[in-house]
Write a structure and sequence with these properties.
The chain is built from one helix and seven strands. It has a single domain, classed as Macroglobulin (MG2) domain (Immunoglobulin-like), CATH 2.60.40.1930. It is about 20% helix and about 45% strand. A hairpin with a 2-residue loop joins β6 and β7. About 5% of the residues have low confidence. The chain is α+β, with helices and mostly antiparallel strands. The relative contact order is 0.22.
Length: about 120
């Protein structure tokens, strides 16, 4: 019973986010692109996702990269990248199969910058 209630609550929150997020963040109507010399963490796709999702980022120059995922409580659930990476576009897949439904934060630290995106795992 509690699991069904939680799933229903998450679906309701996801619908609310989808219906109200445009008011909080402008939509450019297309794919995000990094300007030359700019670090970019793109929104994962698909989002929400059921099992796995793709996370893409662009580095303006070779850099030490840390790409980690956190639960909303702040617990680190995965490290997807750590170490030196070349400049350019990169793509990684996260399999959230062992994690509970909910919101997760994807944090990229590289090239002197930090960017964060919200991921929604929905079973």
């Amino acid at each position: 019973m509690e699991i069904a209630t939680l799933k229903s609550w998450i679906r309701g929150r996801t619908l609310w986010i989808n219906n109200h997020l445009w008011r909080l963040a402008p939509v450019n109507g297309g794919e995000e692109e990094a300007s030359p010399g700019e670090l970019l963490l793109q929104q994962n796709y698909p989002n929400p996702f059921n099992q796995s999702t793709t996370i893409r980022f662009t580095l303006p120059r070779p850099a030490r990269v840390s790409l980690r995922l956190f639960s909303v409580s702040g617990r680190e659930v995965a490290t997807l990248a750590a170490g030196n990476w070349p400049a350019g576009a990169h793509s990684l897949t996260w399999d959230g199969g062992g994690q509970a439904s909910g919101l997760y934060l994807c944090r990229l630290e590289a090239a002197g910058g930090i960017q964060t995106r919200t991921l929604i795992l929905l079973r």
